[in-house]
Amino acid sequence: MNRALWDERAPAHAASPDYGLARFVDDPEHLSDVVRFDLPRLGDVSGLRGVHLQCHLGTDTLSLARRGATMTGLDFSAASVEQARRLAAAAGPAVEYVHADVHDAVEVLGAGAFDLVYTGIGALCWLPSVERWAGVVAGLLRPGGRLFLREAHPVLWALDDARDDGVLALRYPYVERVEPDVWDEDGTYVATDVRFTHTRSSTWNHGLGEVVTALLARGLRLTMLQEHDSVPWDALPGLMEDVGGGEKRLREAPWRLPHTYTLQAVKEADPAGVRAG
């Protein structure tokens, strides 16, 4: 169900001005807003072999390649991978894109093959088990390699985003549950006139403690965790304002809400008893 949804939306996302694919072609120095936001935390990635899990159109993947990393992008949507390959061919530098489920990444790409695993905004919510995902991350990283993750905050995912009265009301799960939240929506998060036929999707929230604990259990050492008061889309329509750089923030008293977070963790030398798959 989720794959059909993303396959149908990929061409519309590629055509939308919100992703701005033409800017990557026209300006060889252009970076995605998401990568640019985290440049002070990301540091120097030149010479690193990196993989971007759940890469969608590959704008973040390409941006990391422009910062000097040798990048691979992986996504379960064939349509998304097709669009990402087109962008890389037109804009450069070269990026390898692989069509595969994220849970098969170690088998497909190789164990311990990467210095950097990158995951961007809006990825973890599509996965039913954060513990299983952490195993994939650990399996892909060489000892000393690092995970770099920026995600929507689980508090944000738990809010009732249909309210327009300024009240922040918790409506959906904060913690991971076996059963997903099932949605039926004919739109998407970018500007487009397309109305889609594949409208149903399933998502899961993962509490911040669950994410951290899952990574620690797989032998990763947390080196950074920062919460931010902005998010790169209109997460609460009618309640947010632009703050520049593609970011939006709650207009009234934004300190009430953690919008997103950035996490970094390093894989230690394999400790006894830690599973990596």
UniProtKB/TrEMBL annotation:
<keyword id="KW-0808">Transferase</keyword>
<dbReference type="Pfam" id="PF13649">
    <property type="entry name" value="Methyltransf_25"/>
</dbReference>
<feature type="domain" description="Methyltransferase">
    <location>
        <begin position="55"/>
        <end position="145"/>
    </location>
</feature>
<dbReference type="GO" id="GO:0032259">
    <property type="term" value="P:methylation"/>
</dbReference>
<dbReference type="InterPro" id="IPR029063">
    <property type="entry name" value="SAM-dependent_MTases_sf"/>
</dbReference>
<dbReference type="InterPro" id="IPR041698">
    <property type="entry name" value="Methyltransf_25"/>
</dbReference>
<protein>
    <submittedName>
        <fullName>Class I SAM-dependent methyltransferase</fullName>
    </submittedName>
</protein>
<keyword id="KW-0489">Methyltransferase</keyword>
<dbReference type="GO" id="GO:0008168">
    <property type="term" value="F:methyltransferase activity"/>
</dbReference>
